[in-house]
Amino acid sequence: MPVSTTALPTSFYTQFLSDQSLRRSPSAIRSLYPLEKQPGIISLLAGKPNASTFPFTSFSFTARAPSLDPALLGPAGGPRETDVHVTITPEDLAIGLQYADTAGLPELLRWLEGLQEKMHGRRASAEGCKISVGSGSQDLIYKAVNSIVNPGDPVLAERPMYAGVIPMFTNIKCEIFEVETDAEGISSDSLRQILEAWPQGKPKPKVLYTVPYGCNPTGMTASLARRKEVLKLAREHNFIIIEDDPYYYLYYGTAERVPSYFALELEEPEVGRVLRFDSLSKILSSGLRVGFATGPEKLVSAIDAYTMTSNLQSSSLTQVLTLGLLKQWDYDGFFTHTRGVSAFYGQKRDVFEAAMNRHLKGLCEWVAPQAGMFYWFRLIVPDEDSNAIIRTKAFENGVLALPGTVFLPNGGKSAYVRASFSLLTPEGVEEALTRLAKTIKEARGL
């Protein structure tokens, strides 16, 4: 951390916690778990089942060796000579079959701390930060939102916005102020206009929600200039940036990767305004349900307190399996794998782009994404509304996509459509866009 940069004090974050979070008492049992590890202690504390009753006696699995070749990341066939074999030790299996620490397995947390230092230059333990593992990053984001935002509070969110997060805010009747986006990601000008025109006497938003890499749904990646301006505004107007970054490792653009908000914060006079969420779903397995939050200790501890009273912890077993693979690969292997994954999706993007040019040129407008797995394109139709066309006509013609209106926090018409290119074969892409072109032509009376 630069000499001129300091971490905000723990007391600073009390203003950002929701009333529910401030009222939440720590779990009478789980808060005492760390004491069980002290030498000489005989614990009568937790109602942990006796491991001798568990039927599982060993775990081993086979995984692909890290590779930069996208061809090796296709559908799994039989074992390959280069596959790596991972056996979970009896000691680790015992940990994986039992209740564990709320924030995550200590060894996995240490591995993730090393990852954040290598990728973002942040030493969590030295900056008043903390890491917590959850059952996917969305699990952690939900808990963060409810730990920070009170019912009816104003919040800032990019428009369009990931549809899976919208209910987190609308269910507690938040007032969502939409920040416009374009080909460079979130618009710092739009954000500044909203904040500078804020009604006097009305409490300002405590959070800004953004997906900065390969945004779902737009596919856009925020530029360096935009990110720096947003960080500046966060300091000027005192809000926390919820950096939801599940597509960070799916960057396939030709330009140098833009640093995360979490990394850029080191250039600020103080650190502690970014609450970052990472996911292993897109790079290891979506079924593992492993994500992790990194940010100010006070805020991440509030997430843990929520977990203590809901699902107790993320699955110990999936954490052990994940850790087993990560230790086998080490950081170099992990980075090789993620570069291969990003190249895989880059090729998928190229196939989809070529088909878009063949079938949809003149019918739609779009900007090619540089990360992620989505195309966001505007239908050139008379009423500037894709909803009925996509929900009914496209489906009748045998193609399914999402109309843009589902990604608007406050609703409204949209001429845009989100299409995912992650799963289709080149032949499937060709047929899907042929059907979509037919649909648009019918809607235009061509």
UniProtKB/TrEMBL annotation:
Q: Does the keyword Secreted apply?
A: no
Q: Name one GO molecular function term.
A: transaminase activity
Q: Which UniProt keywords apply?
A: Aminotransferase, Pyridoxal phosphate, Transferase
Every Aminotransferase class I/classII large domain range: 98-436
Q: Which cofactor does it need?
A: pyridoxal 5'-phosphate
Source organism, top-level taxon: Eukaryota
Q: Name one Pfam family in it.
A: Aminotran_1_2
- Its GO biological process terms? alpha-amino acid metabolic process
Concerning SUPFAM superfamilies, the annotation shows:
PLP-dependent transferases (SSF53383)
Query: Which family does the entry's similarity section mention?
Result: Belongs to the class-I pyridoxal-phosphate-dependent aminotransferase family.
- The name on file for this protein is Aminotransferase class I/classII large domain-containing protein
Q: Which organism is it from?
A: Marasmius oreades
